[in-house]
Amino acid sequence: MNVKTVLILLVLALATIFALVCVLLTRGRTPSTCQHQPPEQEDTDDGQSLVFADLTPEEMVQVVRYLQGSLGVQLVDASRAKPSDNCIASVDVQVPAKAEVLRFLDGGGARPPREALAVLYFGNQPDPNVTEYVVGPLPKPAYHRDVTVQKYGGKVPYHRRPVTSKEYMDINTLIQGELKKAPRFFAACCESDGTDLAILTTAPRGFKSGDRVTWFVLFHSMAGTGYYLSPVGLEVLVEHGDLHVSRWRLRQVFYNGQYFASTGDLEDEFVANLLEVVRIEKPQAEAVLGSMRPRRPPGSPGPLQYEPQGPRYTVRDNRVTFQGWSIAFGMNPNSGPRLFDIRYRGERIVYELSLQEALALYGSNCPGGMSTRYLDGSFGIGRFAYELVRGLDCPYTATYVDRHYLVESETPKTNQNSLCIFEHDAALPLRRHFSDLQSLYYGGLQKNVLVIRAISTLINYDYIWDFMFHGSGAVEVRVHATGYISSSFLHGRGTDYGNRVGPHTLGTMHLHHIHYKVDLDVDGQLNSVETQDMGYKLVKDPWSMQNTIERLYLRRERLEREDKAAFPLNAPMPRYLSFASRKPNKWGHSRSYRIQITSFAGEHLPTSSPMERSISWGRYQLAVTRRKEEEPTSTSIYNQNDPWTPTVAFADFIDNETITNEDLVAWISVGFLHVPHAEDVPNTVTVGNGIGFFLRPYNYFDEDPSVDSPDSVYFSGEQDAGVCGTNPLACLPPTATCAPHLPPFHYGGFLNL
Length: 753
What we know:
Blueprint: H1 3-28, H2 57-70, E1 86-94, H3 98-106, E2 115-122, E3 129-136, E4 143-146, H4 148-152, E5 156-157, H5 165-179, H6 183-190, E6 198-201, E7 213-219, E8 231-239, E9 249-255, E10 258-260, H7 263-271, E11 314-316, E12 319-322, E13 325-332, E14 336-344, E15 347-362, H8 367-371, E16 373-375, E17 399-407, E18 413-435, E19 441-458, E20 461-470, E21 475-483, E22 487-489, E23 498-502, E24 505-508, E25 510-520, E26 526-541, E27 544-559, E28 566-568, E29 576-584, E30 590-598, E31 620-626, E32 662-674, E33 690-698, E34 713-716, H9 732-735
Antiparallel strand pairs: 1-2, 1-17, 2-3, 3-4, 3-5, 6-7, 7-8, 8-9, 9-10, 11-12, 12-13, 13-14, 14-15, 15-16, 15-25, 17-18, 18-19, 19-20, 19-34, 20-21, 21-33, 22-24, 23-24, 25-32, 26-27, 26-29, 26-32, 28-31, 29-30, 30-33, 31-32
């Protein structure tokens, strides 16, 4: 063999080795099915949705600096302000008027100036009051205007302001000092000196306008578990309305069914052996009622939801798009989640969809429980929407978004990862049919929905707020209640007000009522309200006149005025109620969206109650009113501490105006009665405790819009359903090899506490 032949063989060998290496490298690469596929929907927003965007931390700082230098009064940081000080209570975005926004979004008008709404407590004035200022333009403020009188018809009295964290701290100091006056009683009843007990506020605070007198309930506290299930039987009434903390005082004491003028009197009764004491042992960590610590070691992991080729939705700034949907999202620090400019296939369906209020109204034979009517907006539904736990609160691979707020501080705070967005496989067909007659085929579409979620922890309860967007063009709004029940000390006829759930614990009955604002714009701003329901009519049988038949027919009605469109809670209402456009679909019917409510609400507070007007939105499961800029919300954060003279009374919105071809708003109440039971320990479960409503297209389209979904499946009896080109489901086995690259688990939800 000569040298030339050897060289040729070597070259061929090297070429073969190179080819084999290329094959092996190609085989080792991630299949193309695993590559991220960006969503097909084109994003043409160009930042327009930022007109609704929450304030950035930088904008909040600029507003604070401007107010500090422009009001001519000394401002104390709210985190340490006394009632006799002036302070900035909160700063939030001021959403422009709807007409301005629509000129900008739809008419090519100028972008409205960006402004903030600042709430200030003026305690260091001859006439202490709460004042609201609109500050702008951002990011460099140059003006402010007082809008308090414009919004509320007068000044907001100082006693209506929400209680600050600093005020609660001062109240706690007062109570701790008073508890030290009964050392022998506490040693006997609670194995405590009183200083290690947890203190829970109630609300409202008194019986008439101007009162600021609050019952506080005492509980055994144990680190790592909720104290809400361990009442010790003691409750104290504190008067804290004076501007000077030194003048606050404890007015009354309640223990085990008896009332005392002071903790000193309680101690005297105990020493004189005139008091029946129920001895409650201090709970032990391993046996405390309500502990959520796992009782078993972890098992194998459950199903994991992920997107093989990446998310099919897009989040940009405050806007999410998904398969024809476009939604601007945000968070009000008081009232919670708010959505704007909800569009499907480019058409606006809803201008505003926002949570308004969450009411929890309790019953008990203890003073704290029987007087409690929490209006959670005054505490901060959005402010207390903390970081979500990846993989449990939301799918592990969901998109997590930070929310910023400025409340009771001059420095913005961030609840990181406190809103999540994800596509959810509901494990249910959106629609399907199996044909076994005439021809053989199967057609269907899986039910995938886009979900926007936040979870608020309001003292003991956790509310899960969901906004879901379906491929059929429907919007679903849902809330679940979980967390700890609140409880009273079990004494006397306590079970008239709930169930016993522990040795000395009464799970107190209560109502959850939630209120939403839905500003529907169905094929334009001008809509009417149409209802449809069923009836039977006894008629002679057309083909057999000697017989009769109960013929089912459709009753249609257009509601002309607000009074006709205000449906009392728990009263019958038409099964179909729609916001209808003047324009017809292909088949001659008004393009409409139907409101469908799912609720199990308890009874509303009697209208004879002196505080009922403050929650008069709860009178109605649905009320439709003409939209007005001066009626932006159904309630106010000031209603909690003065429900007897409410700053905003929703009942006044319903004044029998015409609602035909007008810009209309649907105000929707949902709720349920909760009688706590043994299975509410440690926590109330979400099963069966979900309520909400749907906005469903009703003749809005010419057919179900989901027919255009790329996820549709169809195959006939003559086709091989196992072929990927015939049936997309057959493509899943190779796609399922695309294991997700999960980010490391991290949680920082305790950082802002």
